[in-house]
Design goal:
Heat Shock Protein 90, 5-stranded mixed sheet, two-stranded antiparallel sheet
Length: 383
């Protein structure tokens, strides 16, 4: 999991998830309503099989299923409010048994009342004939509608459904917190890498000044002034995960102004930037280490003049940045001292973009020197 690359802070893991559960439990009503409606339709099938006439079958459906339109929200609320898989689960189980018993009593009273309003004429084959039963006819009808065979399974199904929902929510919450912890770890790693790069740059700059301060004091003084502007730019990007490419190119120009003081006419620089790429978002101090490697490890070891070229272009949904030089090249061994900046860039790209960004360093196919290429997703920088 990569850290978010839009500069926005990750969500607060301490935010309570209970509010989300209380809001989303209402969605459980929909399948219950569908289930109750299906049950009512099932009772109407009694009419199609000639077991009851249509009016009696519809009235039986109302008696059996309509109360659950009101009872289902109450049962679901109880299940979510008093779950079983908690330290007080035994107490909650007793509460659910009491609730099921109460619903049993209420539904029987309701059924008895509704049957008083409109009795149902049950055919003899639905129960033993009254003359063969010790119960009176009205008691037989009430017995046939006893909720004991009906309430407990319905309550249990809804209780289990609510707990499945709770376990699903808990699993999603654990996954969210794990991903958030991973994102924050990547964020901390990225900031640590950026903090590592700043003193590395500062030490290299101070070494450049120390090389001129005795032999060329005027150039050293000019370099110190240029370095102060450069360091202010470094501090302005401190803590930022991305900057516009235009900012990065401006920073590279400031850095090259310092190096021109040091190398005088031995250094030639060219910039080839596609205007469509200037608004792209890039990590700060991405190009500068590549330009520094080209100058310090490619051009400085030799006395002849050299050149460095910077290319930036958009290729569809990709941004391609290239730094070339005509220096001493890679040789049989990697350039000594060049590894810190390159390792830092690769680590930052991996922390921020994962496998969507990469750095390649290879010999210059046009001749002497090296080509360093960075490819990363193109996205416009946030103003």
């Amino acid at each position: 999991m990569n850290a978010p690359s839009d500069g926005s802070p990750p969500p607060d893991p301490s935010a309570p998830a209970g509010d989300s559960v209380r809001r989303s439990w209402l969605w459980l009503l929909l399948p219950n309503l569908v289930w109750v409606g299906g049950g009512m339709l099932f009772t109407l099938q009694l009419a199609t099989h000639g077991m009851l006439d249509l009016a009696d079958a519809a009235w039986l459906g109302v008696i059996d299923w309509a109360p659950w339109l009101v009872l289902s929200p109450a049962v679901l609320w109880l299940a979510l409010r008093f779950p079983l898989g908690v330290p007080r689960g035994r107490h909650h189980l007793l509460l659910h048994l009491a609730a099921a018993t109460l619903i049993l009593v209420l539904t029987n009273l309701l059924a008895w009342g509704l049957l008083q309003i409109r009795p149902i004429d049950f055919p003899p084959h639905l129960g033993r004939p009254a003359n063969e039963n010790p119960f009176a006819a009205d008691e037989l009808r009430l017995f046939e509608l006893m909720r004991l065979r009906f309430v407990a399974p319905v309550y249990l199904v809804q209780l289990l459904g609510a707990h499945l929902f709770l376990y699903y929510r808990a699993s999603r919450e654990r996954e969210r917190r794990a991903l958030l912890a991973e994102a924050r770890l990547a964020e901390a790693r990225l900031l640590a890498l950026q903090a590592q790069l700043q003193p590395h740059f500062l030490f290299n700059a101070l070494n450049a000044v120390s090389g001129l301060i005795h032999d060329q004091p005027r150039q050293a003084d000019a370099m110190v002034c240029a370095l102060s502007d450069l360091l202010r730019a470094v501090l302005s990007a401190s803590g930022r995960r991305e900057v516009p490419l235009s900012w990065e190119l401006d920073f590279v120009d400031r850095y090259l102004a310092v190096q021109r003081i040091r190398f005088s006419d031995r250094l030639s620089v060219s910039n080839h930037t596609d205007p469509a790429a200037l608004a792209a978002a890039v990590p700060p101090l991405l190009l500068q280490p590549l330009v520094e490697n080209a100058i310090v490890h490619g051009l400085a070891p030799r006395a002849a003049p050299g050149s460095v070229a910077v290319f930036a272009r958009r290729a569809g949904d990709r941004l391609v940045l290239t730094v070339t030089d005509d220096g001493v090249g890679l040789g049989p061994n990697p350039r000594p001292g060049a590894g810190t900046g390159l390792k830092n860039i690769r680590a930052r790209l991996d922390a921020q973009y994962g496998g969507a960004a990469h750095l390649r360093v290879e010999p210059n196919p046009a001749g002497a020197g090296v080509v360093a290429t960075v490819e990363l997703p193109f996205r416009e920088a946030v103003a």
